[in-house]
Write a structure and sequence with these properties.
heterodimer, A: 320 residues, B: 347 residues, alpha/beta, Rossmann fold, 2 domains, five-stranded mixed beta sheet, 14 strands, 37% helix, 17% strand, globular
C-alpha cells in the first residue's frame, strides 16, 4: 500500500466520523426527523472495502448506511439534506437515512429490511457477468442478517451462478439489543458458514482499515477475474445506540467496560498511530484532515437547513 | 391486411416473449423450469430454443432472493421476466416486491426504476387445492408502484406482456391456467395493451357484470344465459387491477344502473370490494339496486370435485346474482358446463 492510499483511508474515515458526530450532536434539535443509525466506530469496514473498488462498481447497504454511502463517493450535501427532509436530499426527502443512494457514485440502494439488498447485489453482479463487464457488486450487511433466509438464498445463487459479488458482513455483535451468542450457533463462525457454501471466505479485524483493504482488494480481484463470489466477515463494534445519537451503555444490554474497550480500539486512532509511527503523516496532517472535514460537513448542514422542503403538491410524484 | 390469426392464450404469451426479446436484448427469462422440456406450459420453450441458456435460464429455489436478483439486474439496465408456475409461491416474493420494487422509484427518487416483470400462474381447478389455486391479485394490487394485470383473452395476454416488458413500472401478470387453451384472435405485431384500461367485451343495457381474469370469461357466458332470459347484460373485463380503470366501471354503471362483480378471489378486501367501493363512492347516483359480488366462499380452496365445483364462481352463479339484482326469477342451468369439465389433468 502506498502512503498516499493509507493517508486517503485515514482521511475518508475521519470525514465519515466528523459527519456523523456532527449530525449526532444536531440530532436532538428535532430538525432531522428520520430514524438514523450511526456507523460511529465501524468506519474502517466501509472505507477499507470501498477503497478497493472502482467508481463503476456497485455497492448496496442496509439501515446503517451512512459510512458506506460516503466511502463509495456518495454526495455528502445530498445525504445531509436527505436527513433534514429537504428537496435537495439524495431521495428528495422521500427516503430518509435508511434509503440512501447515489447511482452516479455506484451507491445503488440501501434498505431498512434485513438482507433485502443481499439478493439485489447478486442481481447486479449477475447483470455485470451477463454483459461481461469487469465490475463487482458489493453488499454490506450486519450479523443479524445472517439469520434471515435470504442470506442463504443469496449465497447459494451467487455460488451456483458464479457471479462477481463480494459479501461484507459487519459483525458488531448485536442485532439491535440482542447478543450474537443467543441468536446463532456458537461453534461455527459466520465466515465458516459462508465458506461452507463454497466460496472464498475470510475473517478480518474490522477495526483495522488497512487489513480490511488488503482483504477486500484480494477478494475483489478474484471477483473481477471471474472466480465468482467472495465473503468477508469484519469484526467491529457500534459505539452509539442502535438507532439514534446517544450512548446507551447504561441500558443494561451491554456494559460500559465493553464499550470502553472497543472505543480504545478506535479504527481512526489506530490508523493515525500507525501512519505517524511510520512517518506517513504527522499530527498536523491529521488535524488538517479533521478541520477540513469539519468545515465540509458544516457547509453541508448549513446548505441543508437553508434548502426548501419538498412541495406538498408533489406528495405522490414518482410513484410510477 | 393479413387474415385474422388465432392463437391460444399460452401461444400468445410465448409469442410476446419471443418478439419482445428479439426487440430488446436486455430482456432475460428466469424461473424454476423455464428451460425444461415442459417450458412453463409451453410459454418459454420457443424463447429458450431461440435465445439459449444465456437469456432463458433455470434458477435455484428461493423466490424471495430471485425477486431481489431481478431487481438488482433491473437496477443496472436489464429487463428480467421471472416466471412462477404457481402464483401461490409469490407470497415468498413479497418482501422484495412490495418493500423494494414497488417503492424503488419513489423512495430513492434518483431517476432510476426497476422494471421487473413477474408472471404468476393460477392453478384453479382439477383438485389443485388450497395452496395451488389461489388468485392473489388483491394482495399485489394493494401496493402503489406496481402494475397488476390479469389477461382473460389471448390478445390481452400478449398485449399486457408487451406493455410490461416496455414499461417503467414493476409488473405482476396473473395468468389463469384454465384459460391457457382458449383460442382468440391475436395481432401478429407487438401491440401493447395498456395497464389501467379495461374493455367492454359485450355491450348491454340492463345490468353490468364486471369480471377479472377467468371471471371476465365466465361473465360472458353468464351474459349468454341471461340473454336466454331476456336480460341484456354488459360485460366489462378489467384486464388490470392496478391501475384500476374506474371510468369504464362508472360509464357502464351510468348506462345500466345495476352492477354485479365477479372475481376469482375472496370478497373481503378483494378486487370485487374495490369495484363496489368505486360504485358506492363515485357512482351512487346511478345505482338502481345494491351491488352484488360473486366470489369464492370464505374458505381455502378444497380438492374434492363436488366441493371444488361449489367453490368457484361460474356462469350460473354469476347469472343468478344478476337475476337477483334484477329481482327476476332463477336462471335455468341449461347449457352451463363448467369451463373445466372437459379437462383431464394433470396441470
Amino acid at each position: 500500500m502506498t502512503s498516499d492510499l493509507r493517508r486517503r483511508l485515514l482521511q475518508d474515515m475521519i470525514r465519515i466520523r466528523r459527519t456523523e458526530e456532527t449530525l449526532a450532536d444536531l440530532y436532538p434539535s428535532q430538525e432531522m426527523r428520520t430514524p438514523t443509525h450511526f456507523s460511529i466506530g465501524q468506519e474502517a469496514v466501509a472505507v477499507g472495502v470501498c477503497a478497493a473498488l472502482e467508481r463503476g462498481d456497485a455497492i448496496y447497504s442496509g439501515h446503517r448506511c451512512h459510512a458506506h454511502y460516503l466511502a463509495k463517493g456518495g454526495d455528502l450535501d445530498a445525504m445531509v439534506a436527505e436527513l433534514y427532509g429537504k428537496e435537495t436530499g439524495c431521495a428528495r426527502g422521500r427516503g430518509g437515512s435508511v434509503h440512501l443512494s447515489d447511482p452516479a457514485a455506484g451507491v445503488l440502494a440501501s434498505s431498512a429490511i434485513l438482507g433485502q439488498t443481499m439478493a439485489v447485489a447478486v442481481g447486479t453482479a449477475l447483470a455485470f457477468a451477463m454483459d461481461r463487464l469487469p465490475r463487482v457488486a458489493v453488499c454490506f450487511f450486519g450479523d443479524g442478517t445472517v439469520e434471515e433466509g435470504i442470506f442463504h438464498e443469496a449465497l447459494n445463487f451467487a455460488v451456483v451462478k458464479k457471479v462477481p459479488v463480494l459479501f461484507v458482513c459487519e459483525n458488531n455483535g448485536y442485532s439491535t439489543h440482542t447478543r450474537l451468542d443467543v441468536r446463532q450457533p456458537a461453534g461455527v463462525t459466520i465466515q465458516a458458514r459462508a465458506a461452507a457454501y463454497g466460496m472464498p471466505s475470510q475473517a478480518v479485524d474490522g477495526n483495522d482499515v488497512f487489513a480490511v483493504y488488503e482483504a477486500a482488494a484480494a477478494a475483489v480481484a478474484g471477483c473481477r477475474r471471474g472466480a465468482g463470489p467472495a465473503f468477508l466477515e469484519c469484526a467491529t463494534y457500534r459505539w452509539r445506540e442502535h438507532v439514534g445519537p446517544l450512548w446507551d451503555h447504561d441500558k443494561g444490554y451491554r456494559t460500559k467496560a465493553e464499550v470502553d474497550a472497543w472505543v480504545a480500539r478506535c479504527p481512526i486512532q489506530a490508523a493515525t498511530r500507525r501512519l505517524i509511527a511510520d512517518g506517513a503523516c504527522t499530527q498536523a496532517d491529521v488535524d488538517a484532515m479533521t478541520g477540513g472535514s469539519q468545515a465540509e460537513v458544516d457547509r453541508a448542514v448549513a446548505a441543508a437547513k437553508a434548502a426548501p422542503f419538498p412541495a406538498v403538491e408533489d406528495l405522490t410524484l414518482g410513484t410510477y | 391486411m393479413a387474415a385474422p390469426r388465432r392463437l391460444t392464450y399460452g401461444q400468445a404469451i410465448s409469442e410476446a416473449t419471443v418478439q419482445c426479446m428479439e426487440a430488446d436484448p436486455s430482456i432475460f427469462v428466469a424461473g424454476i423450469g423455464v428451460d425444461d422440456f415442459k417450458g412453463i406450459f409451453g410459454t418459454t420453450l420457443e424463447a429458450h430454443r431461440r435465445f439459449g441458456d444465456a437469456r432463458v435460464f433455470d434458477i435455484p429455489n428461493g423466490e424471495n432472493a430471485m425477486t431481489g436478483i431481478a431487481i438488482g439486474a433491473a437496477a443496472v439496465g436489464k429487463r428480467p421476466l421471472i416466471v412462477h408456475p404457481r402464483n401461490d409461491f409469490m407470497f415468498l416474493c413479497m418482501d422484495q416486491l412490495a418493500n423494494l420494487a414497488a417503492k424503488w422509484r419513489y423512495m430513492f427518487a434518483n431517476g432510476t426504476g426497476v422494471p421487473i416483470v413477474l408472471r404468476g400462474i393460477v392453478g384453479r381447478g382439477w383438485g389443485q387445492g388450497a395452496t395451488h389455486s389461489q388468485s392473489l391479485q388483491a394482495m399485489f394490487a394493494h401496493f402503489p408502484g406496481l402494475h397488476v394485470g390479469l389477461p382473460a383473452t389471448p390478445a390481452d395476454a400478449k398485449g399486457l406482456l408487451v406493455s410490461a416488458l416496455r414499461g417503467t413500472a414493476p409488473v405482476v401478470l396473473l395468468e389463469n391456467r384454465a384459460l391457457y387453451e382458449h383460442e382468440g384472435e391475436v395481432p401478429e405485431g407487438l401491440e401493447a395493451v395498456p395497464f389501467g384500461k379495461g374493455a367492454v367485451t359485450r355491450p348491454g343495457k340492463d345490468i353490468t357484470i364486471v369480471g377479472v381474469s377467468l371471471m371476465a370469461y365466465e361473465a360472458l357466458r353468464a351474459a349468454q344465459l341471461l340473454a336466454e332470459q331476456g336480460v341484456d347484460a354488459e360485460v366489462v373485463d378489467l384486464r388490470s387491477v392496478r391501475p384500476l380503470d374506474e371510468e369504464i366501471i362508472l360509464r357502464s354503471l351510468r348506462k345500466t344502473g345495476r352492477l354485479v362483480v365477479a372475481d376469482t378471489s375472496w370478497a373481503l378486501c378483494g378486487v370485487s370490494a374495490e369495484v363496489a367501493a368505486v360504485a358506492a363512492e363515485k357512482g351512487f347516483a346511478s345505482l338502481k339496486a345494491p351491488v352484488r359480488r360473486v366470489t369464492p366462499p370464505d374458505s381455502p380452496a378444497p380438492v374434492s370435485k363436488p366441493l371444488e365445483d361449489a367453490f368457484h364462481p361460474n356462469p350460473l352463479t354469476i347469472a343468478r346474482a344478476c337475476l337477483d339484482v334484477l329481482k327476476a326469477g332463477g336462471a335455468s342451468a341449461k347449457g352451463v358446463a363448467d369451463v373445466q369439465a372437459t379437462f383431464a389433468g394433470p396441470y
